[in-house]
Structure formats: C-alpha cells, structure tokens
C-alpha cells in the first residue's frame, strides 16, 4: 500500500510567479462576480425597502390627515353647541 503512494517533492516550478498570478486573477474574478451578484440582489432589496418606507410615510400622512379631520370635526361640534 505504501508503494502506491506518490510523494510529491517541492520544486521551484511548483511555486512559480505564473501560478501565483493566475490564482490572484482567479480570486479577482470571483470577487467581481460576487460583487456583481450582490449588486443585482441589492437593487430589488432597496426597491422593496423604499416601497415599504414610502407606504409607511403614506400611512403617516393618512393618519395625520385623519387626526386633523377628527380634530376639525370636534372643534365644529364644540363650537356649535356652545
């Protein structure tokens, strides 16, 4: 069984500059691909977040308008009875 094992020795050509630069290029490609996918994912997430926030702001506007209508109606009722 030990005879079947292949022992790799360390050679200078195993660690040449060409190999390390190609691995760096591959890592940059992976990084750019990941950033592209994150950017493509961030666009719908930001759109959903903005729509939720705009709905919340619209809800606040509706609530404040309802409060003003109720306040005006109370003032009219109070001024009419007195």
**Order of helical and strand elements:** H
Global morphology: rod-shaped
- Rg over CA atoms, rounded to whole Å, is 34 Å
- Cα-to-Cα separation, first versus last residue: 107 Å
Mean pLDDT rating? 74
* Percent of residues in β-strands: under 5%
DSSP helix fraction:
over 70%
Give the number of DSSP strands.
0
Briefly note the structural class of the backbone.
Answer: mainly alpha
- Residue stretches low in confidence (pLDDT < 50, at least 5 long) are none
Q: List the total number of helices.
A: 1
Biggest sheet overview: none
Please outline the helices and strands.
Elements: H1 17-81
Keywords:
82 residues, mainly alpha
Describe this structure in words.
The protein is mainly α and 82 residues long. It has a domain at 27-82. It has one helix at 17-81. It starts with 16 loop residues before the first helix and ends with a helix.
Task: Write a brief caption for the model.
The protein has 82 residues and is mostly helical. The chain is built from 1 helix and no strands.
């Amino acid at each position: 069984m030990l005879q079947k094992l292949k022992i790799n020795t360390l050679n200078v050509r195993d660690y040449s500059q060409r190999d390390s630069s190609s691995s760096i290029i591959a890592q940059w490609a992976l990084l750019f691909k990941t950033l592209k996918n994150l950017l493509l994912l961030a666009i719908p997430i930001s759109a959903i977040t903005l729509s939720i926030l705009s709905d919340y702001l619209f809800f606040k506007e509706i609530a404040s308008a309802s409060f003003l209508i109720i306040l005006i109606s109370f003032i009219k009722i109070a001024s009419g009875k007195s």
